[in-house]
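Support reply, case 0932

Customer input (verbatim):
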Amino acid sequence: MEFEAGHIYHVFNRGNNRNRIFFHRENYFFFLRKIKKLVLPYTSILAWCLMPTCFHLMIYVHRKKLPDRSKDLNHSIGQMLSSYTRAVQNQMKIEGSLFQQRIKAICLSQNVKIASAFYGKEFGMVFDSCLEDSSFPHICFDCIHNHPVQNGLVEILEDWEFSSYRDYYFERGGRLVDFKLADRELGIVRV
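Our regenerated output:
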């Protein structure tokens, strides 16, 4: 993954062979703590959703590397996944890869063409690839929050506990999302 400061990215991955990555409620909270510790020093979170077999983050990159560390954002994301994997392997008494080999990161704020096939139903996102590039962040924001409904986990968005949707629209008081930046970059105002 090649990140650039000042850009918005959709970062996501799913379980190896489409298997579960979250087995218990505490797994979700543990993963959120990993995001806070390892990803937030480099980024702001604009949206997130954790589901039994995948995770989605919309991040705004402030810096690729921290001045006092030799590691960069890529390394931190890798560390987040590997430390989470080790914890789940120990908890569940399992071996092998938990996540697919490569994490995906798509820049949503540069003039790039995103193949509509990539955002097909496989990842729960369907849209007209003729849209202007400037609309991709808004579409991604909505799609990230809509994943639990699309995948039949809940009937209405607010019923899914593990996404930032409740933080935006139901005053949950989540501290992971940077609401001011979401308003500035996407025009998304917390209700």
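We compared this against your earlier run and they match. Two observations from our side: Residues 112 and 133 are 7 Å apart (CA to CA). Residues 114-132 have pLDDT under 50 and may be disordered. Please reopen the case if you see a mismatch on your end.
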